[in-house]
Design a protein that fits this description.
Order of helices and strands: EEEEEEEEEEEEEEEEE
Number of helices: 0
Largest sheet: 4 strands, antiparallel
Mean pLDDT: 96
Number of strands: 17
Strand order of the largest sheet: 4-5-6-7
Distance between the termini: 31 Å
Helix content: under 10%
Low-confidence stretches: none
Shape: globular
Strand content: over 45%
Length: 168
């Protein structure tokens, strides 16, 4: 799934689904929030989640897309300040959002629980606030790193272990 963005003139709210079996893209239901760029996203089971971003203002809204019903549902607003350029992953049935900017750059970590529809602030990112970080999951550990800090681009990589709520 790919959606939202900016084409150099307009913010976008269209969303697309890729079918690898026949190598085709199909447009799905448009994102119902304002058209935007630099939102974060993650998926849990058969649902996709999209939040925050920038549309001329920094956003705090958060949405769930159900792939079974092709419907969007607004969920609890993101737990931190409105922001954009954050990175996110899903681990053990919850979503995690790291860093971002509004400005200034952020070093926060937030957990989203889809069962309770609640956000919880977790441990801060240890090596400074940043935007445009990247993240991925391997063996139930989230890896977060790189990005842009106020003094330039970074080359660091950190591990977030949700079992002990620590980034090392």
């Amino acid at each position: 799934y790919v959606g939202t963005g900016y084409d150099g003139t307009n913010y976008k709210n269209d969303f697309w689904e890729y079918n690898p079996a026949n190598n085709t893209w199909s447009q799905i239901e448009n994102f119902p929030g304002t058209a935007r760029v630099d939102a974060f996203a993650f998926s849990i089971e058969n649902k996709g989640y999209v939040g925050t971003g920038y549309d001329g203002d920094y956003n705090q809204d958060f949405w769930e897309y159900n792939t079974n019903t092709s419907e969007w549902t607004q969920k609890a607003n993101f737990g931190g300040e409105p922001l954009c350029k954050a990175t996110a992953v899903a681990l053990n049935g919850n979503g995690y959002v790291f860093c971002g900017a509004n400005p200034p750059f952020k070093d926060n970590t937030f957990e989203y629980n889809p069962t309770t529809n609640q956000w919880t602030e977790k441990t801060n990112f240890p090596n400074g606030a940043r935007r445009y970080a990247t993240s991925f999951v391997v063996n139930d550990l989230a890896y977060i790193g790189t990005g842009y800090k106020t003094n330039g681009y970074t080359k660091d990589l950190w591990i977030f272990d949700i079992n002990i709520n620590i980034i090392v």
